[in-house]
Amino acid sequence: MIIGDFDTRVAAAQLNLIFDIEAIFKRRGQKVAVFEKNGDLLFDQTNYGAFEKYYLVFHSSSFRRISSIIGSFTDGLTLDEIHSRCPDLKKSKTIDILNEAVNLGIIVRKESVYLLSNPIGFGPTFEWYVAAVCIKELSSMAYWGVKVEKLTGDYDVVLVRENQIGYIECKSGNFSNISKNHIKSFLDRERILAPQFSIYLVDGVSKDNLKILVDYALEQKFEYEIEIPGVMNTEVSLEAEEYRHFIRLIPINSFFISVRSSIASALREIYQFLTLVCDRTVPTENKAAKAKFH
């Protein structure tokens, strides 16, 4: 659209360049190798109506949990083996979830064994879902499965909130599979991206287990130097602030959060915290210069 001398198509292209995932990393001296490999998902999202159908089904924490459990075993699991790993669910509920997943093509049944439709596992699909929540529920731009050249691992979700860059590491499944090295890798990637905020999101674990992961982070003894030239120079290490539903690491503004039900609600609370606590900067003013205007 042309409005006077203003071409909205040019503006749209410029905005896309600013928030494009490859541009985000280029401005940080990094190069994206690949992102959002649709072949890694448990479904074909090019099918008509795929987004609405699969997005809604992953709202269920029980559905995510069972998908993640099955994905941890490449040879699959029987119904009894699945139920033994989530005994708090009624067996009838587990059967209903499995039947729905089979009908959707997310899980396949071979004789008495259930397997994921893609042997790569549940991880990429979970990343897709978290990115979709950021887009649909939080009006953010989001990209999932971002691999950077010459960097091990990947950025599960990179998002844009207002003009801020955020990074989400997504974990689901067995808590015991998360090691100190996983936490160190998360902190290393956080340093390279230098986002305004980051989130370590663990689906289906208790707050007590979340504290263990935070302790892993504190054990790394990452140090940061805060400097205002000519005014102050302070060396600080990571510290933890505990809140009702999450734990925040400062000075890097990194949130560790455990999700037992709605991922949208959990992320919405982080957004509320960012808005009320972090977004409004306190301005500094030149008092001597201001006095001349009295």
- Tell me, rounded to a whole number, the average pLDDT: 90
Number of continuous helical runs: 11
Task: Please name the CATH topology of the largest domain.
Answer: Trna Endonuclease, Chain: A, domain 1
Anisotropy-based shape: globular
- Corresponding CATH architecture of the largest domain: 3-Layer(aba) Sandwich
SSE succession: EEHHEHHEHHEEHEEEHEHEEEEEHH
**What percentage of the residues does DSSP assign to strands (E)?**
25-35%
Q: Whole-number radius of gyration?
A: 22 Å
Q: Give the CA-CA distance, first to last residue.
A: 47 Å
Number of domains: 2
Q: Taking strands numbered 1, 2, ... along the chain, how are they ordered across the largest sheet?
A: 3-7-8-9-10-15-14-13
Largest sheet: 8 strands, mixed
Structural class category: alpha+beta
Which CATH top level class of the largest domain fits?
Alpha Beta
Helical fraction: 40-55%
- The parts where pLDDT drops under 50 for at least 5 residues are none
- State the total count of DSSP E strands: 15
Question: Can you offer a commentary on this structure?
Answer:
- It is a single chain.
- The chain is α+β, with helices and mostly antiparallel strands and 294 residues long.
- The chain has 2 domains: 42-116, Arc Repressor Mutant, subunit A (Orthogonal Bundle), CATH 1.10.10.10; 123-279, Trna Endonuclease, Chain: A, domain 1.
- It has 11 helices and 15 strands.
- The protein has helices at residues 8-19, 21-26, 50-57, 61-71, 79-85, 91-104, 123-138, 180-193, 207-219, 263-279, 287-291, and strands spanning 2-3, 6-7, 32-34, 77-78, 107-110, 113-116, 141-148, 155-161, 164-172, 197-203, 223-228, 232-237, 239-242, 246-250, 254-259.
- It is globular and about 85 Å long.
